[in-house]
Amino acid sequence: MKKVRVRFAPSPTGYLHVGGARTAFYNYLFAHRHEGQFILRVEDTDEERSTEEALRLQLKDLQWLGLKWDEGPHPETLEPMGEFGPYRQSQRKHIYQRQAQRLLESGQAYYCFLTDAEIEGQKEAAKALGRPHQVQSPWRDRPLAEALKLIEEGRSATVRFKVPEQRTEFKFKDLVRGEITFPSDMVGDFVLIRSSGMPVYNFCCVVDDALMEITHVLRAEEHLSNTLRQIMIYQALGFELPEFGHLSIILGEDRQKMSKRHGATSCNEFREQGYLPEALKNFIALLGWSSPSGQEILSQDQMIEEFSLDRVHSAPAVFDQQKLKWMNATYLRALPDEDLWARLAPFFQTEALALPEDKGWQSRALGVFKTSMETLADAVPLFRPLSQAGFAISDEGKDVLAWDTSRSVVEEWKAAVEATGPGFLSEEEFVRIQDAVKEKAQVKGKQLFMPIRVAVIGQPSGAELKVLVPLLDKQILITRANQALQLC
Ligand code: GLU
């Protein structure tokens, strides 16, 4: 078998969508499964919509997912890496021109001088007759020399592909969808190069896939209908056809095409919401593929080992947010504490939480909170009461401190904490102190717990004190008690 070479070919017009991430990941898995090459090609010929900023964001997302490409633009410098570059279509215009020239010279493409108004007129005429519109160009069979003369005179022209006149059937075996047949008269002569000199997607795609020696084209289902035009171009240029596999669309839980309405759709949003790349990858791998073992939690190595296109389904995949959450929680809770902490750090930083650097403390705190976290972002509200920065007493907290009995409760609480020496209280010590405060201040129930709670976390509700208190240095407990006393 030829060395497998697959590519992911994003258009840098926005963020990397989960659908795109799945296409990228299937290509990556397929490449690694067959010890082949994974190529990143940037389809940026749409000058109005493509931006370098979007390209950089997409590269960042691919890197975040750990989908390292063997060839393509360098992630930082964007310089081509690999012997088939450049990998950005905007830098390959001369290559497309050369291939278009071959088609013009062999009479398989022609310069077309039809104006937009003329094409519009044809469309309307077809509509009036109730027929589907296909361009009928009077330029189709004019000699090339004649067209070149007009161009020299300053007329602008598109380069159109000459769709074979005889009706034939184009058949290919899609690796996901099985045999596909297109009648050739499904399309009329189509544009390869716009009058601006900019080549169109179908043409660039074929030229690049052929010259980059791509063996398998795995891409979204929406490109299935382009495949007919592309096969025609392959044949006209005398290029060998790759194999094609079209991946099903992804639906939201309401079975509508996944969109913003369903929540996050881009990798970047999932990252910001605190999803782990390994969980997201595992999840998207299962959007249309399943492990022969029936297992759901799969390491990347396992997926590489097991990935095959005959287990990729042609039916639409449904994006189940709850399942993603579950999967994320499973991955998150299995992380070693130090790794988990490193991933949480940027979330804490964004929210300006100041937490102890001591690894023992971090492990203890994670031990307490990990089971309440499904995403990294979930840690922020859980850890906020433990932050040394930004402690403030809420209005509800102030109301509690204004009760008649609150002052003596907080005073007794502070004195008892001070009496124990430096460090942290254990859960048992806390319970003992709480009982002692009850005795001394002669209050119980709400009147006892609430003022202590406000003196500890600034508000009357939240996680259990016996969990929180042992995670706060006594020095902090005392400082906070002093702040509370000022409001009693
Ligand atoms: N640039 C196309 C897209 O982003 C990919 C086309 C292809 O893979 O052939 O949808």
Fraction in beta strands:
5-15%
Tell the overall outline. Answer: elongated
What is the architecture of the largest domain at the second tier of CATH? 3-Layer(aba) Sandwich
Question: Which structural class matches the secondary elements?
Answer: mainly alpha
Strand line-up of the largest beta sheet: 5-6-9
**Which ions, cofactors or small ligands are bound in this entry?**
glutamic acid
Rg (CA only):
32 Å
Enumerate the spans where pLDDT stays under 50 for 5 or more consecutive residues: none
Multimerization state = single chain
Q: Could you name the CATH homologous superfamily of the largest domain? A: HUPs
CATH topology of the largest domain: Rossmann fold
Kindly provide the name of the CATH class of the largest domain. Answer: Alpha Beta
Number of helices: 20
Measured distance between first and last alpha carbons: 81 Å
Mean pLDDT, as a whole number? 95
The biggest sheet amounts to:
3 strands, antiparallel
Instruction: State the helical fraction.
Output: 40-55%
Number of strands: 13
List keywords for this structure.
three-stranded antiparallel beta sheet; 13 strands; Helicase, Ruva Protein, domain 3; 44% helix; Rossmann fold; binds glutamic acid; 4 domains
What's the short version?
The chain is mostly helical and 488 residues long.
